[in-house]
Each structure stands twice: as structure tokens, then as C-alpha cells.
Design a protein that fits this description.
This protein is mainly beta and 109 residues long. It has one domain. Helices cover 0% and strands 58% of the residues. It contains no helices and eight strands. The model has no long low-confidence stretch (mean pLDDT 84).
């Protein structure tokens, strides 16, 4: 079950926004930066969450449809094509103007 909460700083409490079932093979959640800058009128990004599952990644947001994308695989003679590809680590780096996201699989790609 994927449940999305939001912190309301004005009232100083947490509000449950929505909750939906997700893939039972999900193993990692990654934040997607978003929201409006406090000083400017620009947006940081789409916001939401990436749900990392075996062989695919799902983008989820409460105001958008979900997008399911397969994880690309390299062709390698020693790799077993029947073995599932799992995301093991992810890091998001946010700068003033842009942000980047690095995601690593079980085979270090």
C-alpha cells in the first residue's frame, strides 16, 4: 500500500492525502522533487514518488496517472535474462536550478 502524507506547517501536523495499492514486488521509494519556490514563482519539478519494483519503475502522483517504465538491460553473455532486475540504491541531488537522480541496479548499472 502506498500512502501519501503532506506536512502542513501552518497547523503543524501531518495530513493524509491519498492511499492506493501498489505492486507487491516494490522494494524502494525515491522522492521526486517538486513544489513552488518560496522566493520565486518557479516550480522545482513534477513532485511525486518513484516506486522501484522488480524489472520496472512506476512514477506516482496523486494528481497524475501512473507511468510504468521497464528498467533497461544491457546485453551481456554472462547475464541471465530470466533473473529479475532490482533497484538497490538511489540518490537525488538538488541544486538551485536543477536536480539529478542516480539509480543503481543489482548489477551496478
Amino acid at each position: 500500500m502506498l500512502t501519501y502524507y503532506e506536512l502542513d506547517l501552518g497547523l503543524n501536523h501531518v495530513v493524509r492525502k491519498w492511499s492506493e495499492p501498489t505492486d507487491p514486488r516494490a522494494n524502494l521509494l525515491v522522492q521526486v522533487p517538486g513544489g513552488q519556490h518560496a522566493t520565486t514563482n518557479q516550480f522545482d519539478g513534477p513532485s511525486g514518488v518513484l516506486v522501484c519494483c522488480e524489472n520496472h519503475i512506476i512514477y506516482r502522483h496523486m494528481d497524475a496517472t501512473q507511468h510504468r517504465v521497464p528498467i533497461p538491460r544491457r546485453k551481456h553473455p554472462l547475464e541471465d535474462p530470466e533473473r529479475g532486475l532490482i533497484i538497490t540504491a538511489a540518490v537525488m541531488h538538488k541544486m538551485k536550478v536543477l536536480s539529478s537522480l542516480l539509480i543503481f541496479t543489482i548489477i551496478s548499472n
